[in-house]
Amino acid sequence: MIAHPMNAYLNTLKVTGALVLAATLVRCSTSAGEAGSTKPQAAPAVETVSLKKGLLSSVLNVPGELISYQQVDLYARETSFVKTILVDVGSEVKEGQVLASLEAPEISSRLAGAESRGKSQEAVYLASKANYDRLLETSKTPGTISPNDLDQARARMNSDLAQLEAARATQREVGNTRDYLTIRAPFRGVITARNVNPGAYVGPSGRGSEKPMFTLQEQKQLRLVVSVPEAYTAYLSPNDTVDFFVKSQPDKAFHARVARLAGALDARLRAERIEMDVMNDNKRLLPGMIADVVVPLPAKDSTFVVPKRAVVNAPEKVFVIKVVGGKAQWTPVRTGRTVDGKTEVYGDLHVGDEIVLAASEEVRDGSDVPQTKKTE
Predict the structure, then answer these.
(1) DSSP states of 279-314 as a string?
(2) How far apart are CA 327 and CA 63, in angstroms?
(3) Phi-psi region of 239 (alpha: psi -120 to 50; beta: other; left: phi over 0)
(4) What are the counts of helices (DSSP H) followed by strands (DSSP E) for the chain?
(5) Span 43-92, pLDDT tens digits
(6) Of 96, 250, 105, 122, nearest to 184 (Cα)?
(7) Which phi and psi angles does 64 have, rounded to 5°?
(8) Crossing angle for the helix pair 147-179 and 105-138, to the nearest 10 degrees
């Protein structure tokens, strides 16, 4: 009996499907067996570093200001008028050089009156002295001059002498006042401001001209002033060398030495004022310039230095993780400077302690650390 072609085709498909199903079941069974036979892998070793001491040096970039070594505003000592002006803005002057002369006719009158009173008092004194000398000479003859008359003559002479000295003091006072009509430079420097002209009415501050007649600055020597934050004041010492740059000459590095430390913190900035002396003979630098100052902060003593990532800055505390007896131990620390990925730490630490290199709060305090791998 001959089978129908369609029935033969269906039988072939059934056989093929059964073979595919059997092969799939065999593969799944094999995969499940392999998966069931895989052993759990060991946890990776925790990288640690041995704690040791070192010196950590850094630099501090702070803005600074160049100011003149000395500066003064010059006012007229006496109310007067400007007679002549001998300098102008930019004039270089020497100590004691005359800058301007003033005139005040009433001072000359006062001086003439003081001189007249002095001469008058001198004549009175000479007369009383001559009288006393005569009485003294006569008293050498017994019974001629009473002791009382001699005492009165001596007292009158001393009184006239005191009056003469007072008159002379008044005369010197008026003479010194007249000397104030000549304005002189108190030190060498440069005139940076001139606010008067001949004929101007001038006087002390608040009287006459409100502005000073001249402003004098010493520019051949300048002060570089910086404010160093409190955290860095312990690293500075006198004679430390600093470098600084100014915008007008960005390719030129200038040098200065620390000359003065304030020794106290500014109440507003909480920073210490530091001054450096800068020689400026060629006048390349000008008072008022803002400088970019590079302050060296050398290490004073060796301290514990760890990689920055070994320090955990948690909200409740800052700590490193020590490995002690195979367990993690959170150790609180205080941090110092951080330079080039390294941080100074202070706390209950000892040389040789094993510190977790990549510390985090995921390594819980007291948790097991079965395997470690030291990193230099």
Answers:
(1) E-TT--S-TT-EEEEEEEE--SS-EEEEEGGG-EE-
(2) 48
(3) left
(4) 3, 21
(5) 567 888 888 888 888 888 999 999 999 999 999 888 888 999 999 999 99
(6) 96
(7) -135, 170
(8) 160
Alpha helices in the chain (DSSP H): 5-37, 105-138, 147-179
Q: What residue type is 192 in one-letter code?
A: T
Quick: pLDDT tens for 220-268.
999 999 999 988 888 888 888 899 999 999 889 999 999 999 989 988 8
Q: What are phi and psi of 193, to 5 degrees?
A: -155, 140
What letter does residue 44 receive in the DSSP assignment?
Answer: P
Q: Rounded to whole angstroms, how far apart are CA atoms 321 and 328? A: 6
Residue 246: closest CA among 288, 209, 205, 197: 288
User: What is the pTM for the complete model shown?
Assistant: 0.63
Structural contact between residues 235 and 298, judged by C-beta atoms closer than 8 angstroms: yes
